[in-house]
Amino acid sequence: MFAFVKYIRTFAAVMKKEKFYVVWAGVTPGIYTSWTECQLQTKGYEGAKFKSFDTREEAEHAFAASPYDYIKRNTSAGSTPSKPSQNADAPYPAAVLENSLAVDAACSGNPGAMEYRGVHVASRQQVFHYGPVYGTNNIGEFLAIVHGLALLKQKGFDMPIYSDSVNAIGWVKQKKCKTKLPRDSRTEQLFLLIERAEKWLRENTYSTPILKWETRQWGEIPADFGRK
């Protein structure tokens, strides 16, 4: 089995984690327990104000208080913005398949200290993380997709994977990480990971759709590290 699985948190537990959504301004203000309910109350509602909380106690306390104790005064999560909203608690566009896994990588310098992670889109909870290790962003994007494929196959979950990297998606389909990064003592650890990823792709079949995250229309991918 693909070596990355040792870094996996229990995926089922992450997906089942309950969150509470406070709607201060919407069709019917209140506390809701799913994104679908939150969207019904806020999507298209001008001046909508809402935020998610980890416990009902926190949500009840927040609902009894001013929304501006929790969100910025210029935040209008439910209004139609001129460009995609970066509000971490805003509902996703209707085109997004929420029962999915989003992956992304970040690199301090390119090459530099690289890390990647996977996030369950609906719950916005991190499912796995790897790094930092010396590498490039494209390599991280490639490894993140393969990590997600191996994880979903191991756990028996049927959901797509989103990536915002055209290069990485292409490399996965070709079963080859076509990096030009030199292999030396500093990158040896990374190349061993790449070889295991390529081996997994050659030896395994999967039905998981790998979808392009449309950043211009939808905003940053949920797995984004927020360092831009």
From TrEMBL:
<dbReference type="InterPro" id="IPR012337">
    <property type="entry name" value="RNaseH-like_sf"/>
</dbReference>
<dbReference type="InterPro" id="IPR036397">
    <property type="entry name" value="RNaseH_sf"/>
</dbReference>
<comment type="function">
    <text>Endonuclease that specifically degrades the RNA of RNA-DNA hybrids.</text>
</comment>
<keyword id="KW-0540">Nuclease</keyword>
<comment type="similarity">
    <text>Belongs to the RNase H family.</text>
</comment>
<dbReference type="GO" id="GO:0003676">
    <property type="term" value="F:nucleic acid binding"/>
</dbReference>
<dbReference type="InterPro" id="IPR011320">
    <property type="entry name" value="RNase_H1_N"/>
</dbReference>
<dbReference type="Pfam" id="PF01693">
    <property type="entry name" value="Cauli_VI"/>
</dbReference>
<feature type="binding site">
    <location>
        <position position="104"/>
    </location>
    <ligand>
        <name>Mg(2+) 1</name>
    </ligand>
</feature>
<protein>
    <recommendedName>
        <fullName>Ribonuclease H</fullName>
        <ecNumber>3.1.26.4</ecNumber>
    </recommendedName>
</protein>
<keyword id="KW-0460">Magnesium</keyword>
<feature type="domain" description="RNase H type-1">
    <location>
        <begin position="95"/>
        <end position="228"/>
    </location>
</feature>
<keyword id="KW-0963">Cytoplasm</keyword>
<dbReference type="GO" id="GO:0004523">
    <property type="term" value="F:RNA-DNA hybrid ribonuclease activity"/>
</dbReference>
<dbReference type="GO" id="GO:0046872">
    <property type="term" value="F:metal ion binding"/>
</dbReference>
<feature type="binding site">
    <location>
        <position position="224"/>
    </location>
    <ligand>
        <name>Mg(2+) 1</name>
    </ligand>
</feature>
<dbReference type="InterPro" id="IPR009027">
    <property type="entry name" value="Ribosomal_bL9/RNase_H1_N"/>
</dbReference>
<feature type="binding site">
    <location>
        <position position="141"/>
    </location>
    <ligand>
        <name>Mg(2+) 2</name>
    </ligand>
</feature>
<dbReference type="InterPro" id="IPR002156">
    <property type="entry name" value="RNaseH_domain"/>
</dbReference>
<keyword id="KW-0255">Endonuclease</keyword>
<dbReference type="GO" id="GO:0043137">
    <property type="term" value="P:DNA replication, removal of RNA primer"/>
</dbReference>
<dbReference type="InterPro" id="IPR050092">
    <property type="entry name" value="RNase_H"/>
</dbReference>
<feature type="binding site">
    <location>
        <position position="164"/>
    </location>
    <ligand>
        <name>Mg(2+) 2</name>
    </ligand>
</feature>
<dbReference type="InterPro" id="IPR037056">
    <property type="entry name" value="RNase_H1_N_sf"/>
</dbReference>
<keyword id="KW-0464">Manganese</keyword>
<dbReference type="InterPro" id="IPR017290">
    <property type="entry name" value="RNase_H_bac"/>
</dbReference>
<keyword id="KW-0479">Metal-binding</keyword>
<keyword id="KW-0378">Hydrolase</keyword>
<dbReference type="GO" id="GO:0005737">
    <property type="term" value="C:cytoplasm"/>
</dbReference>
